[in-house]
Design brief:
Elements (H helix, E strand, L loop, with lengths): L8 E4 L7 H7 L3 E7 L2 E7 L4 H22 L7 H8 L1 E2 L4 H16 L9 H10 L10 H8 L7 E4 L2 E4 L9 H17 L14
Parallel strand pairs: 1-3
Antiparallel strand pairs: 2-3, 4-6, 5-6
């Protein structure tokens, strides 16, 4: 499905285990956690200077927030929110186009098991959920929602993106979260103050 459950995701700047000699050289690891698209993301950094460690994590979280603002479906003013509400988007951020193209490719690789156009079905399930956990769906409503799930009915090009059927919608929740974590990890790796076990972190 195009939407994933709230999972705990961790990106680690060095390693998940901290040998005593590394802690002595780099200092105790510092950790920060933040919420991105309904998922808790944690970063752990070890560095001789706690200030440098926090600076590195701040840069990574800033990159995460930048991407979240481009890829979330939960903000009507976000590019994906505009596409879903209006059916078209003229100025498509490269990051959104890139993630959509990856989602489109994965859909075909999985024979449709992963499909980012599943949002109409997700909305239907959300609208019929109840505290008791029971779910009753009229077959006609289910067929109507499924008729709007079609990754090939999305146009994406240099001149914008367009949903070819009225009522369609995209959710990148199932792929954007991993994309954001990868970008945050890369931001840490490219930060001068990122520590490693070979040498102390430097600025």
């Amino acid at each position: 499905a195009g939407s994933s459950a709230n999972l705990s995701t961790a990106t680690t700047a060095t390693t998940s285990t901290w040998p005593a000699r590394a802690v002595t050289r780099l200092g105790a690891p510092t950790q920060q956690t933040a919420l991105f698209m309904g998922t808790m993301v944690s970063i752990t950094v070890a560095c001789p200077s706690s200030t440098q460690a926090h600076d590195a994590m701040d840069l990574a979280f800033a990159e995460g927030r930048r991407l979240e603002a481009l890829l979330t479906r939960h903000d009507a003013a976000a590019p994906l929110g505009v596409l879903n509400s209006q059916g078209s988007l003229r100025d498509v951020p490269p990051e959104l186009l890139n993630v959509w193209q990856r989602a489109h490719g994965i859909c075909h690789l999985t024979g449709g098991a992963f499909d980012a156009t599943v949002l109409p079905l997700v909305r239907l399930l959300e609208s019929r959920s109840n505290p008791e956990g029971e779910l009753e769906l009229p077959e006609s409503d289910l067929r109507e929602a499924l008729a709007l799930v079609d990754t090939d009915a999305v146009y994406a090009g240099r001149d914008g993106m367009r949903l070819e059927r009225q009522g369609m919608g995209l959710t990148l929740d199932g792929i954007a979260k991993g994309h954001i974590v990868d970008a945050m990890s890369n931001r840490l790796s490219n930060t001068q103050s990122l520590p490693n076990f070979q040498s102390p972190c430097k600025t």
